Every structure is written in structure tokens, then in C-alpha cells.
Amino acid sequence: MKKVLFLLVLVSVLLVTGLFAKTTITYWQYFYQTKKDTINELIKEFEKENPDIKVVHETFPYADFGTKVASSIPIGKGPDIIALYYGWLPSYVGADYLIPLPEEYFPDEYIDENFFSFVKPGVTYEGNAYALPTAVRALALFYNKKLFEDAGLDPDNPPATLDELLDYAQKLSKYDNKGNLIQEGLGVQPNNQGHHWFREILVRQFGGTPYSDDGYEVTYDSPEGHAAFEWYTELTTKYNVGFPNFVTDDRTAFNAQKSAMLVDGSFAIGNFLKNKALDWGVTTIPSKDGIEANFASFWCHGITKNVLSDPAKEEAAAKFLKFITSPSAMKLWLENVGELPANPELAAEYNDDPIYGPFLQGLSYANSTFFVDETAQRNVIVDAFDRVYLEGEAPDVSIDEAAEIEQAVLDEFYGK
Amino acid sequence: MKLRKKRIVTAYAFLTIPMIFFIVVRFWPMIYSFWMSFTDWNLLSNAQKNFVGLANYQHIFTNETFIKSLCNTFAYVLVGVPITIILSLFIAILLNRIIKAQGLFRLIYLMPYITPIVAVSWVWRWIYQPLPTGILNNLLVSMGFEAQGFLNSTTQALISVVITTVWMNLGYCVVIFLAGLQTIPQNLIEAAKIDGANRRQSAMKITIPLLNPIVLFMIVMQSISFLRIFTQVYNMSSQGTGGPLNSTKTIVLYIYQKAFVDYDMGIASSASVVLFAIIMIITFLQFKFVKKDVGY
Amino acid sequence: MLKSDKRINIIIYIFLGILAFFMIFPFLWMVLSSFKPSWEIFQMNIFPQSPTFDNYSYVLEYSNMGRWFLNSLIVAGASTLSVLFFDSLIGYVLAKFEFPGKKLIFALIMSTLMIPTEMLVIPWYVMVDNFGWADSYWSIMFPGMITGFGIFLLKQFITTVPNDLLDAARIDGVTEFGIYWKIVLPLVKPALATLAIFNFIGNWNAFLWPLIVTSSSSLYTMPVGLAFFSSENVTQWEIVMTGATISTIPLIIFFLIFQKQIIKGIARSGIKG
Prior knowledge:
The complex is a heterotrimer of chains A (416), B (296) and C (273). Chain A is of the alpha+beta class and 416 residues long. Helix content of chain A is 48%, strand content 15%. Chain A has helices at residues 2-20, 33-49, 65-72, 89-94, 108-114, 119-123, 145-150, 162-172, 190-205, 223-237, 250-255, 269-274, 311-324, 327-337, 344-348, 356-364, 374-391, 395-414; strands spanning 23-30, 53-60, 81-85, 98-99, 124-125, 128-129, 131-133, 135-136, 139-144, 174-175, 181-183, 261-265, 280-283, 294-295, 299-304, 340-341, 366-367. In chain A, strands 1, 2, 3, 4, 7 and 15 form a 6-stranded mixed β-sheet that branches. In chain A, strands 12-9-13 form a 3-stranded antiparallel β-sheet. The mean pLDDT of chain A is 91. With 273 residues, chain C is mainly alpha-helical. In chain C, helix 4 crosses helix 7. The two termini of chain C are 39 Å apart. Classes of the chains: A alpha+beta (416), B mainly alpha (296), C mainly alpha (273). Chains B and C meet through helix 1, helix 3, helix 4, helix 5 and helix 7 of B and helix 1, helix 3, helix 4, helix 5 and helix 10 of C.
């Protein structure tokens, strides 16, 4: 009798604890104050809606985020949901680190309906979608109104074409009596957004394409690509309106009012808003011969293989991912962090916004590169620029060499 | 005999914990990474560790970037070690001649050595910036010289990092040489003076030879430290790439990037085995040379 | 003769003075920049025109500086104590005992000086996980509990302790550990001071391993915490310089307090090493 009673108690205790046991999931992103705060706010709300789920949120220094992720893998710890740059996706998926988004939470039409059209190809790998963004990014031209006035330019009339851009940049550049540049007309920093500007925008505006349609071939080693790269490198080598690492980097230079114009992403807005001394405006990326182009990118959130050990975890992770990529989360993200929502309908509300407008306009005709190895592909362009700038190589020779190296990166990835 | 045996047992007893420590914390990981250097281990996918033979070694020795890093690393040693040793020896000799404020100078020279390398690298990166914000370039231009590229130049970047490293290590070497000089019996130098030797002669004939063992020891230690140079290179180049155009990249930075940026632990392991071998050979040769030459 | 000596001395002082300025200028720039408001940071004046503590209050507000400082102190302090004990014990055994395998053990210990840390961190991390050490001070400091450098240094010193002294103690019935503790250790105090200082500085500045092994910000050490001020966006030099100053000042204070021992210690390491 006693034994039966004991068993009964045991079973009921197990049942009760089983029912009320919380599933704990861990979310990782890199540290940025407003992003951290926003996610914390979202977690609070999420946990209220899902009392059986607890979300642990951990952040790491931006520069060391990859190191941290990589070292967590051999021990199978680390996050259940992770923020990653979309360009890292192929290497993460290729190594089976991410799992496909669960179909029942994220059917195809859900992604088609709720996200910009460039998102899906960016997160899809061999037919499966692996991650989703809260916010998206595009490029635009930032300019310093005060420096415009100082140079006798109309601060309400920023350059609209590449020719105007070069003309303005020359007028805005200042030199000391020995010819050293002391104020940049236009920031030139291939390792920030410069390589994107060249790859996805300038190449197209000069009539070329950066890659073949299937993404397997590098195609900027064309006459059009040569012309685009020549134009880009001549900003430094011929016109000297800016050069890499001037005042640390182009964004820092612009923030310090040492650079008058800057091609940069929407994620820089937050910084410039904080800088009260800076009187700045932003406009769409200058066109050439009527051709508009832009580069869209995003950080997204994926579910890692760590959840596979526990179906409850997988479910909780899917719920959380859906929550932080929902329109309400996007709205909060925009208000707190200042990044554009990944939902086109929501984004449309800001089309006429003086700050967000130019980026959103850009998004409508933007491409996003399918990176297989973002770091390597960035460095290919950075090195090509440096060979021209520091070693005097001809732009066409240098960019052909870059294409060859990048092709090898693609070939290795696609297993050719 | 009994006492001898007892002492052997005592020695082993004292060594047990430390030896377990070294086996677990140093040798096991070392053997592990040696083994990993023959696999295609991708850090992101822990499961995949296929044996690939010598493919990783073949890869790095035909890889332009690795060869460049290897050459750069030797350049750091060949440029950095002599500058550090000669300059610090010279300063130590000068310091040894003065009486007032010797301690103060020694203290000031030693300050960089105790400062976090990361902090120091940031400051130096600023110092080396181009106009209008670079401190050194502002100074050069105000004195009528041309502005220089420093870290933005493929020819000057490596030497710029070397100068920063010399600046960091100088005080440490000065203090050691100074102490060495102060142990040289003064009467030897007095005797030389009486014999009519001038200052240069007494330096060449007495001071330098007596300092030899210390100099050689310092060469060994500085060589190891320059062979493992990483933090300042990582923090002084744009985005930590070891640029421009890999002109400052070292083997350790190559290893770091392969491991934690490309997640290619197989390649990273084989590069670190190569580095280990190089350090060992150089250290072995130097010790051998030291022993033979001065009976150290 | 005397006159030329004086002239040479003046030249030496001028040279050493210029060099001292060269050595100290980067610190000066770092510290003074940390008091500049952001709009002033790129004006090339040395002294801040409108000095401010804003950068410090910013860094303190957006960080857990007090905690990180404490963590660094605990990690560096505890591992230094361990290093002093074990390294001197091993140094004593290697210097004063004869036993089979001694040469091999010494060679193996020396070889640990040549392994790049970058290759060890992943296996260490696997170990931390297997032993369940995650999220503890122990996990940060265990790899540095015994060091090859310290053993090498102390072995060289202990070799110079006269054997007669140790034998006399043995005859008096002192245990081997007692000899080490009561006779050897007091005799090599200066070497211990050197090692303590090197080791403390090394641990205080360690970055890669603490970064990998810590997850919660309450366990960060100073260098890991300061890395949070690197960002995807603008490089705020005034904040960077403030962080650098904050991480340097404790070491400078430590150095000023112990400068006599440090200089004595470093000097010895060179001569005996």
C-alpha cells in the first residue's frame, strides 16, 4: 500500500514538474547598447506570452564575435539562436551549424509575404531557408551640410550623379600647402562599405554585372568592371579626394567632420544622430546614366544545431525567432536602434522620412551579394584597391587578379 | 644509498602534481593540435575530422599568404632584435655613466613594458595616422619634412610596428644590461685607464666581452618574443588583417585568422606546428652557440 | 679632462632626456586625450582645452568596470600565488635533486615556452566543459597555474643557494618540504618578486583565453570588458583612450609601489637567466 502511494506521489511530482518545467534557450548577438536593450525588452514581452520559456541573452564584443562562436562549437554549448551576418550563412550552413527554419512556423509564403524579396535568396541554401532578419540595411550618401556651405555648395542639393559626386568631392577636399589632404571630399574605404559600393553598385552602373546569375562566376573582370574600378581607384590615385584609413576610417572621419561625404549603410544613422555637433543630410546613392543600384544586406537570426537535443527547445527557439522577426519587433527595433524594418509594408511607412527615405528608396532596386566567404571576398577587393593605391598597379590588371582569386574562393566553396 | 633513494622518491612526489598539470594543460593540447594538423577539421562542424595526410602542410607551403607571413616573421626578428639589443645596450652604457636621476630614467624607460599591449597599440596607431590627425606626421610636416605613410604603406608598416615593439621592450633590456654593467668590477676599468686605454678601448676590450652572456641570453629571449609577435600587429592594422597587402602579417596572426576567422583548424594547426619547430630550432641553435662560446 | 667629462655628461643628459620624453609621450597623449570632449579629440593640441570627465562617466555607466577590475585582480592574484608556490617547488627539485629523467623533464618544461597559445585554447575549452568548470574563476586561471618561464627562472636562482646550508638543515632533521619552505624560499625572495610581477602583468593583460572561456559579463576581466568598446561603427578615440587609461593606471600604481623590487628582479632575471 505504502509503495503504491509512494509511486503515485512520485508520478504526480514528475508530471507536475514536467508540466511547469521551463525550457531555457540561449540567444547570442554582438554587443551594441541599443540592440542589447531592445532584445532584452523583447525577451521580457516574449516570456510574458510564453511563461514556459526562459531566454538567456548574451552579447560579445563585435570584433570577437566570430571567435566566440567558433570556440563554443567543439563543446556543443553556445547559443540556440544566433545573430549572424547573412554573408556568414554559407559557411555556417556548410558546416551543419544551423538547422533549416521549421516549416510549420515559417512556411514559404510567410517569408515571401513578410520580408523584402532580397531576403529569401540571402538566407536560402540548397532550397532551405535558414535564418531571418529583424532589420535590413541599404547604402546611401551621407553629407555634411556645414562643410557644403563652407565650400559654397547648396546643402539642400546634394550630388545626384557620379559626375556630380566627383565634382562635389573635389570642391569639398582641402589640402595643406604641401598638397596633403586635410579634409576628405568623399570617404574612400574599401574595407568598410566601399567594396560593396564597387561590387554591387558601380559595376552595374558602368554596365556590367558583378556575378553570373547563378552566382558561380565572377564577372566584374569585364571592360565595364575595369571602368568601374578605374573610376573608384581614381578617387584616390588621380583626384585624391579621399584615401583608406584617413582619420582611422571613413565613418570616423565623417563623424569628426574631417570628411564631407560618405557612402555608408543605414546602421551608421544611430551614430550620427548622437553626434550633436554634426549637421548632416542623407540622399540616395548617385546614379550614372540613369542607372540606379544599391546594395542590401542584413544581420539575421538562425537556429543552431544545439536545439536538436530537445524538441521543446527547438519549438521554443522557433517561437522566439518568429517573435523577434515579427512586425512589432521590427518597429521597436527601428525606434530604438534606428535600423530599417525587414518587412516592406512596415518599411513603406517611412518612405518620406528625410533620414530613412533614401535608404528605403535604395532598397527597392537593391541587390545583395551571395557571399560564400564574406571576409575573403571583402579582402579580395581591399587588396585590389591597395595594389593600385600603394603599389601603382593598373586598375584593370589589379581587378582581374582580384576576380581570379575570388573565383577560386567560389570554386572551392561550390566544390568545382 | 638509502638517503639517495629517499631523495629520489621525494623529488618525484614533489613533481607529481606539476607533471600531471603539464601533461594535461600543455602536452595533451599540443599533441592534439599536432594530430589535428593532419585532418581537415572545420571548427564550425565538430564532427568532421578526416585524415588528410600532409595536405595541410602542402597547402601552407604553397600558399602565398603563409610564405609572406613566414618572411615577415623573420623580418621582425632580423630587424627588431638587433635594434632592441644595440639601442638598449647603448642606453645602458650611458645610464651607467651618470649618477643623478639614474633611477628616474630607468623608471620612465620601463613604463611601456608594464602597459597593456593593446592599449599601447591603440595609441601608436593614432601616432602613425596620416594627416591631419596623425601625431607624427603633424610633427614631420611642421618641421618641414614630407608626410609619411607609416602603417598605410607596404614598405613602412612593418618597420613601424617594429619601432613600437622596440619602444615596448627597450626598458626591460636597458634595466637588465644596466644591472649587468654594474656587476663589472670597477677596478678592471680603472686598471685599463692606468694602462692608457681610452674610453672606447675599455668599452670594446672589457665591458662588451664581460656582458656577452647577458647579451646572448637577451638575444634568445627577444628572438622568441619577436617570433611570437601578434597583439600589436593585430591591433595596429586596419580590421586586424595584418595589412596593407599582408605586409605586417605574422605567422601567429595567420594562425589566429585561420582558426577563428576561417575556422580552418587543420591549416591553423599545421601552421602552428611549423612555428613551434622554428622557435625550437632557433632557440636550440642559440643555446648551443651560447654554451660553446662563453661556457654559459 | 674634467671639462670634457662635464660636457659629455651634459650631452648624455640631453640625450637621455629626449629619450625619456619619447618613452613617456604616448602615455601622456593617452591620458590627456581621455579628458577631451569628442569635438576636441582631433584637434592636435596636447592639453585638453575644455577638460571633461564625460568619457569616464560614459565608460563607467556602460560597463561593469568595478566588477571587471575585481575579477582581474582575483584571477591575476590567485594564479600568481599558485605560480610562486609551484614554480619555486619545481625549481627547487630541478636545482637540488638528482633523479632519473631530470634532464628530460626540464627539456619538456622548457619546450612549453614555445607553444603558441592560439593553438591551446580550443583543447582547453573542451577540457573546461568536460570537467564542468564553466563560468568560474578557476576556468579562467587554470592554464596559468604553473609556468615554464617561472620554473626556469627560479631553478637558476635556487642553484646558487649553497648546498651546505641545505645539508645542515637535513642533519637537524628538517623535512624536505621544510627545507624548501623555511630555507630556500626566503633566500630567493627577490626572484619571487620578479616572477610575481611578470606573472601578474601577464595575467592582467591576457585576452584571448578569458574572452573564449567567459560568457557572462560578471566574469569578464578588464581586457575582455574593454573590447566591448570596439564596435561595428565609429571609432570613438576619446572612449578608446579612456578605456586604455583605465586599464593602465592600476598597473602604473602597482609598478610605482613595487618599482624597487621590479627593477631588482628584472636585473636578476637577466644575469642569472
